[in-house]
Amino acid sequence: MFYVAPSLLAADFSDLKGEIKRMEEAGANYLHLDVMDGHFVPNISYGAPVISSIRKHTQLIFDVHLMISDPLKYVDSFIKAGADIITFHCEAVESPMDVLKAIQAKHIPCGIAISPQTPVDAVLPFVGVADMILVMTVEPGFGGQSFMPECLDKVRILRREALARGIDLAIEVDGGINGDNAVHCTEAGANILVAGSSLFKTKKPKTVIQQMRTAAKEHPFLG
Ligand code: DX5
Ligand code: ZN
């Protein structure tokens, strides 16, 4: 399945309810929620209270991307706030496998994210274990950066590994994604596209989402 996940970081924060509605009407599947702690990344965004406040206004799947130093410590509060999927960074913890298993033990799907500078080997052991792998296509911490196409090599490697082992792996890409480069992401093997600026900063998000869906249909995984 193919999913589009608008990243709330690019929304007008004075009208979150209206912004989320706009994405629902445009055909989004997930709402990507970037949590930054000013420690793992050099920026601070928002936390569980904001997520809990918007939870009652939408049925979209809450895809929580934790860019924080001690994810396990805060997982319960994000589950309580309404997270449907929780993703943490492999670079943020000493033993990603232990953290992944601890989060999954709480009966919530868990993703593992990898930053541009980290080799794919850091997440390969999680194919077949993680519910999702998030390949960053910008340095984590800020919206509105330029897409790094070289990161798609990791997507290709992960998709090939999953296909070879008959695993239906969810691969999400995040950072600088728009209607034009979406096709490179889907060709490489991503099936969840996160997009902040390209969806929230346009008056026609529906057109961009349609472009993304066309990319997924016309250019499925390389295999
Ligand atoms: C960056 C975040 C992204 C970001 C995407 O650290 O993880 O989700 O909000 O925004 P755009 O699409 O503007 O790069
Ligand atoms: Zn993100």
Protein architecture, described:
The chain is α/β, with parallel strands linked by helices and 223 residues long. The protein has a single domain, classed as Alpha-Beta Barrel (TIM Barrel). The chain has 8 helices and 8 strands, in the order βαβαβαβαββαβαβαα. It has helices at 16-26, 48-55, 71-81, 96-104, 152-164, 182-188, 197-200, 205-218; strands at 3-6, 30-36, 61-67, 85-89, 110-114, 132-136, 170-174, 192-195. Strands 1-8-7-6-5-4-3-2 form an 8-stranded parallel beta sheet. The protein is globular and about 40 Å long. The two termini are 15 Å apart. The model has no long low-confidence stretch (mean pLDDT 97). It binds D-xylitol-5-phosphate and zinc ion.
Count every beta strand, where a strand is a DSSP E run of 2 or more residues: 8
Number of helices: 8
In this entry the ligands are:
D-xylitol-5-phosphate, zinc ion
Low-pLDDT regions? none
Share of helix among residues? 25-40%
CATH superfamily: Aldolase class I
Oligomer: single chain
Strand order of the largest sheet: 1-8-7-6-5-4-3-2
Number of domains: 1
Q: What structural class do helix, strand and pairing data support? A: alpha/beta
Give the amount of beta strand, in percent. Answer: 15-25%
How are the SSEs placed, and which strands pair?
Layout: E1 3-6, H1 16-26, E2 30-36, H2 48-55, E3 61-67, H3 71-81, E4 85-89, H4 96-104, E5 110-114, E6 132-136, H5 152-164, E7 170-174, H6 182-188, E8 192-195, H7 197-200, H8 205-218
Parallel strand pairs: 1-8, 2-3, 3-4, 4-5, 5-6, 6-7, 7-8
The structure holds D-xylitol-5-phosphate (DX5) and zinc ion (ZN).
Zinc ion binds next to strand 2.
